[in-house]
Fold:
Amino acid sequence: LGATPLRRSTLIFSIVVFRLFVAMGQAAAIIIVARLVFGVPMMGSWPLLIAMIILGTLTFLAMGYMLSAFAKTERTAVPLLMSIQFPMMFLSGIFFPIEMMPDFMKPIMEAIPLTYLGDSLRQIMVESSALHAHWINAAVLAGWLVLCLVVAIRFFKWE
Structure:
């Protein structure tokens, strides 16, 4: 990547934009299947839904860049990312309701950014009961975004 004739900022920006388009396509496919196959209604605001999908995508992209900054090789990056991704999926309330989790795990769940994205998306799509207000969900995701960007910029190497 360091040998490309593009400026590094152009290369990174193009990758981020590409990932955003992919995420928006994936979200659209999930929403279409949810509505047509499972009859899930869209009860909230489309602009708010799109904004949260973009914020969530940027947050997790930054988290991926941050984690890959600590990987020595490409081969070690994937296991490192998976070691964070899988626990996050199971502890965020995406697959299992947070209410079913033991009390000692709740502080961990409150620290996971996917908890806030899932809460916000459920509130917007089906008006489920809120764990947190929308502004708290957005603020936590934005905080994670900034933190991950700062750490990624500080430690990322083009080697």
The chain has a mean pLDDT of 87. The chain has six helices and no strands.
